[in-house]
Design goal:
This protein is of the alpha+beta class. It is 18% helix and 40% strand. Strands 18-19-20-21-22 form a 5-stranded antiparallel β-sheet, with no helix packed on it. Strands 1-29-28-27 form a 4-stranded antiparallel β-sheet. Helix 6 runs antiparallel to helix 7. The radius of gyration is 24 Å and the shape is globular. The N terminus is likely disordered.
């Protein structure tokens, strides 16, 4: 009898998981790789084996409808959309070409705007470009080639050469930036023994990068040892810095790692906390190959809400592995896998893009020759997207806002319950009692989440933080829960550091 009820329990668990996630459709496309979705959620841009494909996302079915194909000779896997959504940028790997397309927002189609071959107006060398990235401000374009990293100033769709960094060892890896735009992470940039895991300071005024550290700390696997000669050593998990994602609030960082074990190395996931410009190791998830058939990691993708982490794996164990993320601790809990054995169309999933509400995930299967549309029925939109949905949904009754001249508040900008001045004072007292900035930040974020604040309330709590960087992180988080965002610009008085003040203003423009 117990076995009978246990089986019923398992069936119920499996059905629940299957109900939340399902493959909605498969679109067959030659060698799909990098993709991006326009901010309005209407158009999908995809780098593929023939060039760049432009697709309309059907607003009802969420399926892809091809509207344009741009042929590009040679191969590439990189493509990005500028923050203002005006330009799409891609490369030609074999011929050393940088291509900038102008986007028509009325129909989503692209037209060639600039083409740079081998050099940028005679300067530098475009040598087998493997990665491209824009700085958070959108002012600088980085082009990683074979053993070179070119820094370009980017303005109105035009690239201007600034400088080039040459690697002494392996080719430069993927380029990532911290959410505040002050740090960059580039594998194989530095010159020391840990150059594969380089942390750099980024100057947004000049576009320069300075090596400030590296990820030396490994995660020791408890109770797991081996002998090197006569010396006992412990197996560890180490970071690779090849695939990396920040949570929306910039607090948690996830990246791929390597778990050492008796037969060599296999894929793992590292979890860090980003504290005052430092990555503080929190946890490592290992033995994933044994538990979830998760080994050859090809990418790590966090949705816009920060609620779910999608790990893409290739080879014989190709799959889409889904983890739920705890918003407060950052901890990951395994949910489900879509494996090649059961879904043959999933063959080396490589990149993924998310719909605005995060319910639809468009996964490029490079060797499968298709884009899988995965549906997550329980996904939540990003905070600003949720507010916009509430404003734009004409079927939802809108709150009545009284026109009071002395109170410049637009309550419809925040869909949650307003926090009172008494509550703010209590929160302020509690924050002052806490010993560390990180503890204050965690408590403040947890307390005001899903509540509406006014700009002056955000200001009052921000002044508790002594470190200006933490102040910036706090106001960026609180922005999503502020009702009178038209007054938010007043908070620039919180910052004396010029770069942080600029980062604050840039966050308002974005």
């Amino acid at each position: 009898m117990r076995l009978f009820f246990f089986i019923l329990f398992l069936i119920g668990t499996i059905d629940s998981s299957s109900a939340q996630f399902k493959i909605k459709a498969t679109k067959y496309i030659s060698s799909p790789s990098a993709s991006v979705i326009s901010d309005d959620g209407k158009y999908f841009y995809l780098r593929n084996g023939k060039g760049v494909g432009v697709y309309r996302i059907n607003p009802t079915t969420k399926l892809l409808e091809n509207i344009q194909e741009l042929k590009i000779s040679g191969s590439s896997s990189e493509l990005l959309l500028t923050k203002d959504n005006r330009f799409v940028i891609t490369t030609n790997f074999s011929d050393g070409v940088l291509l900038i397309y102008k986007r028509d927002p009325s129909n989503g189609k692209l037209s060639l705007h600039k083409k740079y071959e081998q050099t940028i107006d005679g300067k530098g060398s475009i040598n087998k470009p493997m990665d491209i990235a824009l700085s958070p401000s959108g002012r600088y374009l980085f082009l990683a080639g074979n053993k070179t990293l070119m820094t370009l100033r980017f303005q109105d769709g035009t690239a201007t050469y600034l400088r080039q960094h040459d690697s002494k060892g392996s080719p430069h890896g993927t380029i990532y930036f911290s959410t505040d735009g002050e740090y960059a992470f580039i594998a194989y940039y530095g010159d020391n023994s840990y150059f594969g895991r380089t942390i750099l300071k980024f100057n947004d005024e000049t576009g320069e990068l300075y090596v400030v550290g590296d990820l030396r700390e490994d995660y020791p696997i408890p109770g797991s040892y081996y002998y090197f000669g006569r010396k006992q050593k412990q197996y560890t998990v180490s970071a690779n810095l090849e695939y990396m994602n920040f949570s929306p609030d910039g607090k948690d960082v996830y990246m791929d790692g390597t778990e050492s074990y008796s037969n060599g190395g296999r894929g793992a996931i590292m979890h860090y906390r980003w504290v005052n410009g430092k990555l503080v190791l929190q946890n490592a998830y290992y033995e994933l190959a044994v538990k979830y058939q998760l080994e050859n990691i090809k990418n790590i993708c966090l949705d816009g809400s920060g609620g779910y982490l999608y790990v893409l794996t290739g080879g014989d164990d190709s799959g889409i592995h889904i983890f739920k993320r705890d918003a407060h601790t950052g901890a990951l809990t395994f949910i489900q896998t879509f494996h090649k054995k059961n879904y043959p169309q999933i063959a080396t999933p490589y990149r993924a893009s998310f719909s605005a509400d995060n319910k639809y995930i468009y996964v490029s299967n490079y060797f499968g020759g298709n884009v899988v549309v995965l549906e997550n029925s329980n996904a939540k939109p990003s905070p600003r997207q949720q507010q916009q949905l509430n404003v734009d949904n004409k079927e939802t009754p809108q709150p009545i806002v009284q026109d009071i001249p002395t109170n410049n508040v637009s309550d419809h900008d925040c869909p949650y319950t307003a926090i009172t001045e008494v509550e703010v004072s209590r929160i302020e007292e509690r924050l002052n009692d806490l010993e560390t900035e990180q503890a204050r930040y965690d408590f403040a974020m947890k307390t005001v989440q899903n509540r509406c604040l006014k700009t002056m309330q955000v200001l009052k709590l921000a002044r508790v933080f002594e470190v200006e960087y933490i102040r910036l992180e706090w106001v960026k988080f609180a922005y999503y829960y502020t009702s009178d965002i038209e007054n938010f610009y007043l908070l620039d008085t919180l910052f004396t550091n010029k770069r942080l003040k600029q980062a604050f203003k840039a966050s308002l423009e974005g």
